Amino acid sequence: MNDHFFGRATRASLPFLIWAAHFGFAYIVAASQCTPGAFRAAGPNPWLLGGATLLSMAACAWVGALAGKRLRQGSEEFVDYVAAASAVLAVVAVAWTGIPVLLVTGCA
Amino acid sequence: MTRDATLPNSAPRPPEELEKLTAVWKTPSGLGFFKSVNNTNIGLLYIGTAILFFILAGILALIMRVQLSVPDNDLVSAGTYNQIFTMHGTVMMFLFAIPIVEAIAVYLLPNMLGARDLPFPRLSAYAFWCYAFGGLAFFCTLFWGLAPDGGWFMYPPLTGMKYSPGLNADFWLLGIGFIEISAIAGAIELIVGILFTRAPGMTLRRMPVYAWAMLVVGVMIVIAFPAVIAGTALLELERALNMPIFDPERGGDPIIWQHLFWFFGHPEVYIIFLPAAGMISTMIPTIAGNRLVGRRTIVVALVGVGIFSFGLWAHHMFTAGLGVIEMSLISAASMAVAIPTGIQVFGWIATLWSGRIRMNAPTLFMLGFMFIFVLGGLTGVMVAVIPFDWQVHDTYFIVAHLHYVLIGGMVFPVFAAIYYWIPLINGNTMSESWAKWIFWLLFGGFNISFFPMHITGLFGMPRRVYTYSSEMGWDALNMISTLGSFMFATGILLMIVDATRTLRRPTKDVGNPWNAATLEWLPSEDYGNRSIPIVTSDDPLWDQPTLSQEVAEGRHYLPNTATGRRETIATSPVSAKPTYLMILPGDSWLTVLGAFGTAGFFLLLTVKANLLAGICAVIAIASIIAWLWQSDQKVGLREAAIGGGITLPIGARGTASHSWWGTFIMLIVLFLIYCSFAYVYIHTSMRLQICPPPGASLPAAAWTLLSAGLLLGGSALVWLSDRVPGKLTPWMLLVALACTSAAFGVDVYSWRLVHLDGTRDAWSASISILLGFQGIMLFVLLLAGPYLCVRAWRGMIVPQNRATRDNIALIWHYVTLQGFTGFLVIRGLLLVME
């Protein structure tokens, strides 16, 4: 591992990992707040889920902007291209999976 | 002798060099072929066996279609029909779809990457033989009426002991459970192979898109399969030992199975689609005579599909009673995955658009794939819409959708791949005139068979019914579907005949019949390429026109065998710079014997022949230990020249070593299985009004602290054993083993003090299973620890041969980590819930 494989792989796929973390967090919050162990009468907390969605979108956009800046400065690193392109996909995907938080409430 | 300063070696090469290389890599003839471990040979066996299962499962499909062709048919009974549809789905998914995509990769990748072989050829051979022995025995259960009959996704409670008391479900759970292990072994080979054995200069950016697809798929298998392995283990434990994980009356929940199964089952769709997409991305530029449009973006899209696919599992569960927000999240993710998939499709269309298409057999099948797969994708978006899914769930609409996705998305690309790559075997191409007939029979037959099923489903016909009444109005549609299925089968038959004819023709020079750009079309023998090529572009055979000749003349790297053994160049994972010389194991019957023992153990255990199962287990363990004993041996040299003034060390240690990576990935799989069990504990705990449930309690914290301390002590001793004089090493390892064993003993004892009973309720069962898994890992250490000690006493742990030591130390630290995870999850959740 003399060419920083883990670091580069993480940098390139960070937006997708943020999407996965957001999705996992939203699913776990929604599931747990509708079960006896952590029940919330009004259903899953929309502020918590909405905040996580905005934060995740901002994080993906930030990673994408950094990668885009490096590309504009002439970087030819594959990792920068992957990070920028995956940020675009991840922002859309986080926004998409965040829509239910705005539209749907309750557990049933 | 001529020397080109830009190439690492001069030509002509000394004649004895090729003789030695050929002798070392020679494939045994006759029956000896079956002990071959060379991935190119194993790949062919793998592909052939997978196609055999495709034919067998296809015959089952035809029986079903005949049964459904007319109403009130009594060709087969309801019970037999249940077994047939279960086996059709199971065999197609587990014994054809996954194995064939891995098989094609195992066959193609060594040459496509410019390697002599992938890093773990014996592991590939073992995985193949496990699959072949286990799969054939599993299929034969059909002839004794013992085949599983609960549907390919085997939902409890239908498959629990109460409603399925026979052995049928056990055959599925144990049979498929261990065949999944062979898929994981294949994935480890592919991941490490792709990261470590690419030709020098083939950076990740230049790596073929197909290799990218297989890298993503390998990682997906590692993440997805542990869930279903855990699920099958849990259901078998409920059936065999009365541990009520899925029994609501004792605090269990059948939904747990659905979550675990579909967390594997949905990514599985992409696990078989992405290799097909990778093949398409490799074939289309050749067919169009044009570089792949949006190559880098297509790579990103492959990774995106792989990751997004893990957010879709519950879209198979929209009628299972999940919460409305969970379902909406899954629905949204189901639509989001269409974006990266669409990027790939548009990339292919743009490549075809901007090139000059040659209309030949692979082209026909690729166009067929695009048409059928896009239709399957569109109905996929339809069923991602929850209200629509509620209407068509469990109807023939779903049967139509899944076949459009799977046959369109995987079978047609595989057929295109067979036409495209079959010349690699003996230089002959299949008949173009036959191909047109075959294509239209398959394309027409498929659409005639499956398109009407959308309508049959909308008319309300449920899937899996063995017959129907004429009054339902489904007669004509079913008859059309049956006629289409036989048309499809005729196409398959003709294709097999043509492939057989092609393979029986005399061998001729393979050449590069399609003028492709990828390295598998370099001249190749048992040893792969004569010399290992230097790659300087995305499309090496187009941009390096003299590459074939240079490689064949031995002018590139390692035109010989430096150590007198099988070897290849290991390169760094990102920039593909040569790092060390990787020694590869030779042919052996041990892999066949080990697989025979493994398959025998699982299958005999199913029929409760415990003594014979035990004997098979001993055979399997002994074979694997003997195989491992032969690896990591001294080779006499410390470094070797590969040309171009480069001298590489022989072997590597720690994270630079491929074997460390293989072990690391295996441990990720084990950890994810453990996490699946931990999820079961969390799920059952969260559903309780009072946790722990009445009658159950946690042991005193002091016991847990003592156990944790002993675990840490064991790991610390293992760490220290590498830093003391060699003679002390084995003794320290034995003390470490005593510590780790004592930690487990203390843990078990503490739970016995609070009368933990895994049959009382699901909560207690989930803790028993977490404990049991820790016990299994301890069993592994009880084998591995003394094995390492013996090697140390025999003087086999030296600075050049540290793989065994490093890997066992890694496993040891993992057992400690797993133990700590268990303590934290069990106690931490209760703290959070309070």
Give an overview in words.
The complex is a heterodimer of chains A (108) and B (834). Chain A is mainly α and 108 residues long. Chain A has one domain (5-103). In chain A, 75% of the residues lie in helices and 0% in strands. Chain A is built from three helices and no strands. Chain A has helices spanning 5-32, 46-72, 78-103. In chain A, helix 1 packs parallel to helix 3 and helix 2 (46-72) runs antiparallel to helix 3. Chain A starts with a helix and ends in a 5-residue tail after the last helix. The model of chain A has no long low-confidence stretch (mean pLDDT 90). Chain B has 834 residues and is mainly alpha-helical. Among the domains of chain B are: 358-516, no CATH class; 517-526 and 535-551, no CATH class; 674-833, Cytochrome c oxidase, subunit III, four-helix bundle (Four Helix Bundle (Hemerythrin (Met), subunit A), Up-down Bundle), CATH 1.20.120.80. Chain B is built from 25 helices and four strands. Chain B has helices spanning 15-25, 39-68, 78-113, 121-140, 168-196, 209-241, 255-288, 295-308, 324-336, 338-354, 361-384, 386-392, 396-421, 423-426, 432-458, 475-504, 540-543, 547-552, 590-606, 610-630, 658-686, 701-721, 729-753, 762-793, 803-833, and strands at 567-571, 578-583, 639-643, 646-649. In chain B, the strands form two sheets. In chain B, strands 1-2 form a two-stranded antiparallel sheet. In chain B, strands 3-4 form a two-stranded antiparallel sheet. In chain B, strand 1 (567-571) and strand 2 form a beta hairpin. In chain B, helix 6 (209-241) packs across helix 21 (658-686) and helix 11 (361-384) packs parallel to helix 15 (432-458). Chain B is globular and about 80 Å long. The model of chain B has no long low-confidence stretch (mean pLDDT 94). Classes of the chains: A mainly alpha (108), B mainly alpha (834). Chain A binds chain B through residues 1-5, 8, 13, 16-17, 19-20, 23, 26-27, 30-32, 34-38, 43-44, 49, 78, 81-82, 85-86, 89-90, 92-93, 96-101, 103-108, and chain B through 195, 203-205, 296-297, 299-301, 303-304, 307-308, 310-311, 323-326, 328-329, 331-333, 335-336, 339-340, 572-575, 577, 579, 655-656, 685-689, 691, 833.
